[in-house]
Amino acid sequence: TYELMKNGACERLRPESFGDYRDSFFIDYVIRTKLKGRNLNSLFINNRNLLNKLKVVSCNNQIIEIKDKLESGELVYMKIEKQKNDLQNLKSIELLNIPGTIDTFVYLINGYEVYGIDRIKDTVELIKSIDVVIGDIHFTVPDDAFRDLFFPNFCETLYSIKPIEAFFHQFGKDEYIYLYIFGKNDQNLENFELRRVQTFMAKLIFNKNGYVGRILATWGELNAYQWGCPNFIGF
Q1: CB–CB of 149/97 below 8 Å?
Q2: What's the rounded Cα separation, in Å, for the pair 184 and 163?
Q3: Please, what sign has the CA dihedral across residues 219, 27, 24, 28?
Q4: Which of 197, 187, 204 shows the shortest CA–CA distance to 222?
Q5: Count of Cβ atoms closer than 10 Å to residue 50 Cβ
Q6: What radius of gyration do the chain's Cα atoms show?
Q7: Where is 24: in which H helix or E strand?
Q8: 164, 178 in Cβ contact below 8 A?
Q9: Which long-range contacts (CB under 8 A, 24 or more apart) does 208-212 make?
Q10: 97 has which bridge partners?
């Protein structure tokens, strides 16, 4: 991924190459595999560059606050908090051993699959809570929307790994808010190769009635579609 970016190959791919159609292939994959059975549809697949970005008024490694107005004039406010936890304090950890090797990977934590982590670590970072206010309606996002997202990236940028961002989408009379979250496990200045960062791309979807659902791509899925190129859009 880094070599592609360094050499400018992302911009010079041949017309017949996979790279020119990377985004279309990725979107097709997401629609086929990520929406069915989740009460979601292709309406929620978007180019963020064409949406209205909501203002981040405060961002540090523990708390992000987003505050802006929708086209209807209603105020929207979002607060995302992070927490650290001792991995051993979690109820149960199931490991997966690769046959014929000594490699062991984290598979399940507390009975559910996890993203942004594959090896045992003493301390992990998780989202503690997400609170949303739209007009005079306040709701707290259920923790099953984010409890499996380890090492969420709050404020930093590393190539295609972006800070937490929120966007507004007006579709007819319906208004939606999208919250994008990336993982940053093993991200550091020395580790410039995205393929070595245990990440994910999650899109949490809200409307005035509360949390609608999410779309999530794993580290392996992102790598398969050359997400490290600067113009990668995603969903």
Answers
A1: no
A2: 10
A3: positive
A4: 197
A5: 9
A6: 18
A7: helix 22-34
A8: no
A9: 208/134, 208/135, 208/137, 208/175, 210/132, 210/139, 210/141, 211/139, 211/141, 211/142, 211/145, 212/39, 212/40, 212/44, 212/176
A10: 104
Residues linked to residue 218 through DSSP beta bridges, in sequence order: 200
Q: Which amino acid is at 46?
A: N
Q: What stretch of H or E contains 220? A: helix 219-224
Q: How many helices (H) and strands (E) does the chain have?
A: 3, 13
- pLDDT at residue 17 in the model: 55
What pLDDT is attached to residue 178? Answer: 94
86: β partners: 123
Task: Give the Cα-Cα-Cα angle 83, 147, 145 (nearest 5 degrees).
Answer: 125
Which positions of the chain have pLDDT values less than 50?
A: 1-8, 12-13, 15-16, 189, 191
Residue whose tokens read 């940028």: 157
Structure tokens, 74: 């209603």
Alpha carbons 14 and 147: distance in angstroms, whole number: 41
Place of tokens 């309606």: 137
Cβ pair 33, 225 in contact under 8 A: no
Structure tokens of 118?
Answer: 């594959």
Give the per-residue pLDDT at 62. 93
35's tokens: 């929406």
Q: Name the residue with tokens 């939606």.
A: 176
Q: What's the pLDDT at 20?
A: 55
pLDDT of residue 230: 62
Burial letters for 183-204: b for 16+ Cβ neighbours within 10 Å, e otherwise? bbbbbeeeeeebeebbbbbbbb
Question: Using CA atoms in the order 17, 215, 163, 175, what is the torsion angle rounded to 10 degrees?
Answer: 110
**What is the Cα–Cα distance from 34 to 182, expressed in whole angstroms?**
17
CA neighbor of 180 nearest in space, from 157, 197, 208: 157
